[in-house]
Inverse folding.
């Protein structure tokens, strides 16, 4: 039992330390579900409208973002929730659980705080147990509140309980995967990357299995993403697929604790290779170092953005059918009935812009992680100026975000071209993505401003991003006032190809981004560095 000494204290400490983070995640996920239930119910009221929607979910794109397609023959509200929202919630739970477990295990070892704790009366397994326990708590709360939302929305109670239980068990499973990956790498960045890679592979197993056969095939059963929907909620409920989560969780927990006992504190099972005696010319300079540190995440995000944009573009062939069967979509989605294809692609482009803006903010915030770990202090103690160091990181983020946004435009245009056999869409959508670049750059500038002047204010940038995302997705659907929607960042510049290009907001946002970045660089030169 000495291995687990102090676990209770750590659990209470983590719950207090992450109370805001956990609350935000819970409110965002449960709030999304709570808002989606009445929205879908109002948007698709007649059987014809719902069957039209079900036809979209039977397309390859619908299967990728939806699921195996249970309940499509009599598409009720419950089946719509299961097919159209489950994957989004599971992906969000995977991200939350991986970040949480790695943050409280490998990141604590990397920072040296774990060594300080173990020098006292803390057991060797206390930290991982506390991380997994708190991850289970937050997932259980999300699952329970999701069940209450579904029952309050008038959906069948046993199916709602199965849905909430499936979400919670899936989140715990993703956390257990992260715990195993945290034993492999000696860096938190490597552990997170490996866990996301594993989860990505498991997601692809679900996609391949569900596309091969309606209802899922053999590859689907290798993926935790599939098991919640394989309970056939709101169609023909069966509970036994949820038992797969319990088995896998027990195996992963046992594996993680066994591997943790076979390595030294602060070390990984795979030791980092020593670098060459002489640095490559590509590492000559601060910019090259920042680029090398981020090259893996840049490539991964770029590939993901391109593939998502490509699949979004193929949906253009379905939009006319959807609108014909449900004309109210024109209003609820804020589309232009006279120019439907352009409006639809313009709306989808905003999702690409959101993704690249999120990447850009995370990319800039890596300098904050370098600072907190003490590596920035070491670099800046040499002949490297502060503005040059932070400016190089911002430049890497800017170049990557610009390329990624344009790549999204090319991917979406290519997808539309494949679907319509008109490859003129590539140039049209690429132009639309270029028109949105100031918005992405604005978030880079604001994040730089927060990092340079007051790092604690980074949360405000994320809050505005989240507000804009919510208004873009739900503003029209919930019939919110225009002024509330206009306060978001994603409608400031012209939305090509739907609207004519307007240079005034384009240049204004570009100037605001440059000004915020400049102030951030200047502020970083004067403020104190965080030290370890």
């Amino acid at each position: 039992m000495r291995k687990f000494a102090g676990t209770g204290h750590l659990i209470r400490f983590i719950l207090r330390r992450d109370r805001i983070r956990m609350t935000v995640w819970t409110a965002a996920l449960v709030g999304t579900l709570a808002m989606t239930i009445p929205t879908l119910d109002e948007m698709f009221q007649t059987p014809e409208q719902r069957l039209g929607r079900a036809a979209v979910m039977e397309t390859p794109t619908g299967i990728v973002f939806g699921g195996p397609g249970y309940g499509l023959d009599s598409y009720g509200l419950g089946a719509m929730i299961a097919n159209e929202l489950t994957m989004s919630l599971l992906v969000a739970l995977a991200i939350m659980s991986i970040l949480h477990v790695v943050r409280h295990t490998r990141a604590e070892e990397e920072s040296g705080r774990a060594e300080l704790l173990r020098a006292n009366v803390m057991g060797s397994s206390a930290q991982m147990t506390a991380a997994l326990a708190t991850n289970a708590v937050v997932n259980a709360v999300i699952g329970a509140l999701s069940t209450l939302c579904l029952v309050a929305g008038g959906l069948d109670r046993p199916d709602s309980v199965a849905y909430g239980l499936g979400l919670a068990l899936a989140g715990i499973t993703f956390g257990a995967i992260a715990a195993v990956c945290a034993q492999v790498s000696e860096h938190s960045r490597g552990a997170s990357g490996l866990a996301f890679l594993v989860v990505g592979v498991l997601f692809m197993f679900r996609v391949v299995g569900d596309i091969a056969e309606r209802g899922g095939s053999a590859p689907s059963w290798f993926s935790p993403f599939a098991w919640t929907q394989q309970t056939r909620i709101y169609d023909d409920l069966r509970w036994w697929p949820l038992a797969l989560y319990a088995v896998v969780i027990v195996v992963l927990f046992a594996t993680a604790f066994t591997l943790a006992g076979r390595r030294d504190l602060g070390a990984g099972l795979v030791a980092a290779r020593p670098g060459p005696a002489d640095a490559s010319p590509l590492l000559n300079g601060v910019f090259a170092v920042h680029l090398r540190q981020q090259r893996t995440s840049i490539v991964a995000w770029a590939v993901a953005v391109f593939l998502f944009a490509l699949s979004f573009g193929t949906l253009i062939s379905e939009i006319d059918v959807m609108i014909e069967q449900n004309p109210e979509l024109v209003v609820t989605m804020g589309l232009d009935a006279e120019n439907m294809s352009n409006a639809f692609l313009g709306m989808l482009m905003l999702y690409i812009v959101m993704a690249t803006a999120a990447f850009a903010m995370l990319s800039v915030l890596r300098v904050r992680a370098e600072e907190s770990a003490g590596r920035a202090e070491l670099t800046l103690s040499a002949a490297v100026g502060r503005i040059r160091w932070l400016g190089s990181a911002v430049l890497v983020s800017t170049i990557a975000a610009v390329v990624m946004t344009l790549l999204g435009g090319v991917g979406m245009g290519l997808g539309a071209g494949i679907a319509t056999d008109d490859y003129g869409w590539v140039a049209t959508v690429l132009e639309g993505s270029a028109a949105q670049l100031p918005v992405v750059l604005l978030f880079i500038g604001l994040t730089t401003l927060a990092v340079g002047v007051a790092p604690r204010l980074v949360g405000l940038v994320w809050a505005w991003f989240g507000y804009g995302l919510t208004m873009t997705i739900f503003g029209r659907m919930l019939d919110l006032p225009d002024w509330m929607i206009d306060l978001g960042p994603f409608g400031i510049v012209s939305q090509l190809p739907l609207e004519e290009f307007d240079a005034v907001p384009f240049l204004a946002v570009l100037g605001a981004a440059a000004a915020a970045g400049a102030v951030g660089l200047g502020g970083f030169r004067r403020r104190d560095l965080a030290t370890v």
